[in-house]
């Protein structure tokens, strides 16, 4: 008997806006991601209000999965994938988000992708909204701040639920929905950036807009879950949280309280609503702290209660530490500002590597909610070099993943009900945080570079065969 369940879903994860390309092909409209320029570890990407001539927008071609999907899915199948986490570009189905009828060419593309998965025995895990909000909805409604988006989202959900019946069973409503609890999250997750043009790390923070937008996303998610349950009982709907585990900087009780407040606002606020179907008791203290008044309508509580998700998924890349001292070092690498942990190493991009934190996190989430879990993003962004013989020896990636899978195994022994594991960027793609190609995650190298050049040729890294043996052994041979 192995540690992981016999039907454990091994696979990989990507996002449409980061790897599909073909940004304006076959009727597709512009999304928020399509308005983001390239960037780097030191130069932030920019959000523009119009397409600038001569400026590089990485999502426009990305790695062109749109024209390489058969080749790429065949490579995933060669590794033994049981599941492939991908997303649907909302603007490929409804170019502005406001059309009454879907774009047939967009629907047909995903038919081909899901049929190709089925041919290879791979189960699609589909994120409905993964940082690709139609930009037209930002211009008209300031993104999810407008309650009107709920109806447009449901129109989108109904179209794809009906079209892909029998092809897709597992759905996630919003990718990393809790990004909206953070200032930078307003750019991609909620779209509350109307009229803003400039570096994404300088977006003016408007907590009232962000948290109001989150309320509308909670309602949209709940309505999608209930609609699926009522009309497609075979569908399973999950949430998706960007989980950045944090620890108190010291055993000073003030640090303990500061960390508890941080964990509540950043990691628990959204999932408490989506899993328990109601706002947590501490929500009011968060609203009061930020001067927020959530506008609710009669019946909103009932919608949230009836739309609780079936399973919980999350991304896990790092951890950080929280101090009550306002002068404490905030660090500059992690997704969420926090102090440097002296016990941990860091990636090339400054993200602190904490495999044991994944075991701790899995136990904390499962103890809190007692519903099945899935790790749907985890991985190491690094600079990969092609050797003279054409090989790519990414032992650092193998080491990172091996340690995290080992800790997942310990969490399962602890009693956690873990459904699957889809490491992030199973094929190289555009980095969401920096807008660059140099930050590579994949088992498959794509010859595409930060200046927009490259043949788009695919080649296997050393980690490709390593992950293949991990899957074949159901996680026993690491």
From TrEMBL:
GO terms for biological process: carbohydrate catabolic process. GO terms for cellular component: cytosol. It comes from the Bacteria. InterPro entries: GH, GH_1_N_CS, Glyco_hydro_1. Keywords: Glycosidase, Hydrolase. One of its GO terms (molecular function) is beta-glucosidase activity. SUPFAM superfamilies: (Trans)glycosidases. Signal peptide: none annotated. The keyword Repressor does not apply. Transmembrane segments: none annotated. It holds the Pfam family Glyco_hydro_1. NCBIfam families: PRK09589.1. Belongs to the glycosyl hydrolase 1 family. This is 6-phospho-beta-glucosidase. It comes from Pseudobutyrivibrio ruminis.
